[in-house]
């Protein structure tokens, strides 16, 4: 690694960037690239961060931030309509969708400066706007200029999976990237896909006033989550008016709008033969890597069978001088994993280490109402392996009863040695309660440690505590511990 430059970091032209050899070139200024670049600079490296489009990536502009802002507005509308059981009745709820979208874009603008080139420059990171392409194992080309590096980090992200349905060319099918350009609330919205993005946006738009139909090819929503959690979310979406069609796909689109309508309404024919009329359609079918144009073959970087950049446990590609992190890899695709893996990759590159990326303890949250938070082994998989699953229904949770949100539950997975190996929480702010169990799974914490740790009352975290207390008490009723308790009790009676 070279001695840190005394010249202050700044935004560069491609020619200026090509005048030197960089310790680390980072391709992509999303979560993985931003954290990777900041980590490398903190370790004393000369870093060039290259971004082709917008600094901040998918999470800031079209993912986490706008979707959570939309969900907040939808939750407010829902609360205004549905609080009669709490003694609060609203005679009318007026949703100004244009104002909702102003709130969404305001949230983006508020956060955006943190990831701007100006802030990155102050952090000591040189930036370059342009599309990078490898032309060899130790260099990239941007705007015709060759830029040499000692190490590189590919953090180029992913793109939405698009539909391939007959007639879609006549329909302006939205993705999670173009959805935020909506200016008016669609009276009828068709959503393809029952994963996290599809469920979140379908429920939010229904609460804001759209008549939403959600079409999902699987037999249950959120197929990567526990079946019990999926069932609660399905019931919640249907209660909010979402017409959920499971085991079904869209076979064809037909436009029913005028030829001069830039966003024509249409009819979708489903695989079961039924038809659904819509004003706008959203494809929420996941995301995939688009590696074309990166010049990976010239760099000696291999792809896996699914088209993602293949990496080892230390995030090295087949070129030992190039690492990859974030959505461009096959590893878990979340903003928090992208950031963590970006830091690991940059540390390994700059210091020549082989730190492993943790792919076993990955917390995840689906921001429906109720939320689904999960970490570690799922209850379904745990039962198949003979592990214990302790479940505490929120119907018996004081805080949930007081709030009127009793449809959730907390499940804790415990192995044969009494260690916490997984958790699922379904309820309000489940993601906030999940942190405790992420630490427990990471450290191999015993349920007795959780049970003997005081928890504040009344809270939703109380559900998990009640569950582990019961498990700890069960352990006291048998074996050596039970014998010891009986012996102490006998001695106490003798003293009396």
Description:
- This protein has 496 residues and is of the alpha/beta class.
- It has 3 domains: 148 residues, FAD/NAD(P)-binding domain (3-Layer(bba) Sandwich); 118 residues, FAD/NAD(P)-binding domain; 110 residues, FAD/NAD-linked reductase, C-terminal dimerisation domain (Enolase-like, domain 1, 2-Layer Sandwich), CATH 3.30.390.30.
- Helices cover 34% and strands 21% of the residues.
- The protein contains 16 helices and 21 strands.
- The strands form 5 sheets. Strands 1, 2, 3, 4, 5, 6 and 16 form a 7-stranded mixed sheet that branches. Strands 17-18-21-20-19 form a 5-stranded antiparallel sheet, with helices on both faces.
- A hairpin with a 5-residue loop joins strand 20 and strand 21.
- Helix 4 packs antiparallel against helix 5 and helix 4 packs across helix 7.
Q: What's the structural blueprint in terms of helices and strands?
A:
Layout: H1 14-17, E1 21-27, H2 31-42, E2 47-51, H3 57-61, H4 64-81, H5 97-111, H6 117-122, E3 126-129, E4 133-136, E5 139-142, E6 145-154, E7 159-160, E8 188-192, H7 196-208, E9 211-216, H8 227-239, E10 243-246, E11 250-255, E12 266-270, E13 275-278, E14 280-283, E15 287-288, H9 296-299, E16 322-324, H10 335-351, E17 364-366, E18 371-376, H11 379-384, E19 388-393, H12 398-403, E20 409-414, E21 420-427, H13 430-443, H14 447-451, H15 461-476, H16 479-495
Parallel strand pairs: 1-2, 1-6, 2-3, 6-16, 8-9, 8-14, 9-10
Antiparallel strand pairs: 4-5, 5-6, 7-15, 11-12, 12-13, 17-18, 18-21, 19-20, 20-21
């Amino acid at each position: 690694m070279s001695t840190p430059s005394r010249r202050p970091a700044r935004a560069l032209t491609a020619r200026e960037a090509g005048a030197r050899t960089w310790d680390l070139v980072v391709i992509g200024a999303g979560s993985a690239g931003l954290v990777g670049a900041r980590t490398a600079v903190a370790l004393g490296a000369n870093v060039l961060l290259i971004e082709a489009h917008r600094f901040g990536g998918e999470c800031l502009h079209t993912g986490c931030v706008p979707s959570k802002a939309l969900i907040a507005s939808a939750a407010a509308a829902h609360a205004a309509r549905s609080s009669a059981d709490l003694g609060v009745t609203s005679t009318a709820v007026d949703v100004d969708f244009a104002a909702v979208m102003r709130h969404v874009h305001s949230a983006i603008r508020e956060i955006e400066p943190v990831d701007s080139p100006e802030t990155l420059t102050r952090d000591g990171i040189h930036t370059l706007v342009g599309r990078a392409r490898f032309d060899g194992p130790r260099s990239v080309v941007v705007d015709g200029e060759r830029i040499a590096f000692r190490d590189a980090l590919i953090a180029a992200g992913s793109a939405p999976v698009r539909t391939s349905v007959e007639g879609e060319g006549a329909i302006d099918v939205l993705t999670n990237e173009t959805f935020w350009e909506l200016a008016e609330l669609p009276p009828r919205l068709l959503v393809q896909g029952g994963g996290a993005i599809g469920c979140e946006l379908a429920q939010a738009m229904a609460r804001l006033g759209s008549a939403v139909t959600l079409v999902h090819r699987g037999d249950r929503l959120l197929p990567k989550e526990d079946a019990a959690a999926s069932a609660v979310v399905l019931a919640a979406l249907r209660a909010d008016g979402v017409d959920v069609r499971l085991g079904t796909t869209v076979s064809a689109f037909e436009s029913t709008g005028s030829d001069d309508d830039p966003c024509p309404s249409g009819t979708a024919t489903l695989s079961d033969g039924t038809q659904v009329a819509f004003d706008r359609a959203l494809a929420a079918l996941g995301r995939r890597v688009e590696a074309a144009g990166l010049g990976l073959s010239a760099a000696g970087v291999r792809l896996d069978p699914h088209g993602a950049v293949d990496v080892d446990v230390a995030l090295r590609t087949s070129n030992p001088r190039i690492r990859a992190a974030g959505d461009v890899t096959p590893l878990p695709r979340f903003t928090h994993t992208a950031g963590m893996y970006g830091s690991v990759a940059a540390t390994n590159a700059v210091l020549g280490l082989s730190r492993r990326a943790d792919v076993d303890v990955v917390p995840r949250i689906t921001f429906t109402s109720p939320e689904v938070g999960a970490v570690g082994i799922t209850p379904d998989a745990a039962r198949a392996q003979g592990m214990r699953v302790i479940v505490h229904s929120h119907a018996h949770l004081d805080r949930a009863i007081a709030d009127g949100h009793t449809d959730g539950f907390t499940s804790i997975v415990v192995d044969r040695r009494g260690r916490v190996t997984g958790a699922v929480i379904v309820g309000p702010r489940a993601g906030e309660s999940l942190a405790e169990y992420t630490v427990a799974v990471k450290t191999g914490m015993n349920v007795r440690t959780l049970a003997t740790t005081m928890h504040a009352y009344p809270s939703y975290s109380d559900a998990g505590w009640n569950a582990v207390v019961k498990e700890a008490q069960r352990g006291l009723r048998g074996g050596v511990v039970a014998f010891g308790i009986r012996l102490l009790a006998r001695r106490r009676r003798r003293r009396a």
